[in-house]
Amino acid sequence: MRMKKKKRVVAALSGGVDSSVAAALLKEAGYDVIGISMQLYDHAQNETTRFDSCCSLKEVDVARRVAQILEIPYYVLNFEKAFQEKVVDYFVKEYLNARTPNPCVKCNSDVKFKALIQKAKELGADYLATGHYVKNVLNAKTGFYELHKAKDVSKDQSYFLFDIDRNELPYLLFPLGDLLKTHVRDLAKRFGLPTAHKPESMEICFIPNNDYAAFIEKKLSSPLSKVAGNVVSSDGKILKQHRGYYQYTVGQRKGIGLSQTHPLYVVEIDPNLKQVCVGKKADLWMRGLIAKDINWLRLPETQEVSLKIRHSKQEWQARFSETVSWSSHAQPIFFQDRVAAVTPGQAAVFYQDDVLLGGGWIERGLH
């Protein structure tokens, strides 16, 4: 952690073990730490079903206790309007456009980092710190900061940060980037934090019971009949009716509700026809994809990159069809070997070695 003189830092506190240990490490290192939690949605409407979700009232209470133990100032800021517009509305719109959204990426780039850096500056802070598992490294050759994968590869969260503004990187601290999760748990115990044994939540914070289909149905302005349609085979034969195409995603196998001699997968969704097309796994294999709205944190040194098309350890070797530049915002990229289940709406994130180059949103796969 960089500090020549005592610096002020805003630590984002979610009520989880990672953010609380990050704040504790900064306090121990001599920073002037201010804890902030974000209220992102209407608790009165959601508390009964999501009482222990990220940024819920319960989590805010935990974060407040952490701040008391660390003896740091603590504030809860309301970002409900921005979260509704930038994350929730986007989430629903993407599913209704037959795309599979990634709300965590949008929340990071369009709400959390943008809003908290602005708030940090208003409070006279030099940095914003979070509990993300990622490294922020100053490149001695270029003089610019760049994001690298975390030491704990199993917890690396760089995939979710590809869309943040590269101009924000000098203001960001990630104290957990060089730590293993097991070490973070041990540190939480040493600091006496109430989050030491807290389990991780893998659910979308604003979706009650993780039932995104029911959530979307509540948001629909038209009757369910407007999104109902047919499940068809690759040759156009009607196999069954569905009650909403938004309940399906490209690559899905479970929950289709059809008995065949071979496994069936969702291979395409047409929101205009309200049609879900299913086929064999071979129909899912793609030689490349089109990525749009690309955000670059660093330009690649060559056209060859490693590519993630979902949050997992799995990476594929790929190549841009042409040399890219800072202004390359829509780009075809081709896999070294064919890849299955390229899902429109998900993030395509580019790496070279451990360096996060940036990423974009999958428009479609290329057969």
Keywords:
single chain; about 375 residues; alpha/beta; Rossmann fold; SH3 type barrels; Elongation Factor Tu (Ef-tu), domain 3; 3 domains; six-stranded antiparallel barrel; five-stranded parallel β-sheet; about 30% strand; globular
Description of the molecule:
The chain is of the alpha/beta class. The protein folds into 3 domains: about 10-210, HUPs (Rossmann fold); about 230-280, SH3 type barrels (Roll), CATH 2.30.30; about 285-365, Translation factors (Elongation Factor Tu (Ef-tu), domain 3). It contains 7 helices and 17 strands. It has a 6-stranded antiparallel beta barrel with strand order 12-15-14-13-16-17. Strand 10 and strand 11 (about 275-280) form a beta hairpin. The chain starts with 7 loop residues before the first strand and ends with a strand. Mean pLDDT is about 90; it is low at about 45-50.
Q: Quick recap of the structure?
A:
By secondary structure, the protein is an alpha/beta fold. It has 7 helices and 17 strands. It is globular and about 70 Å long.
Spans of at least 5 consecutive residues with low confidence: 47-51
Helix content: 10-25%
CATH class of the largest domain: Alpha Beta
Q: Strands across the major sheet, in which order?
A: 12-15-14-13-16-17
Corresponding CATH superfamily of the largest domain: HUPs
Structural class, judged by helices and strands? alpha/beta
Number of strands: 17
Beta content:
25-35%
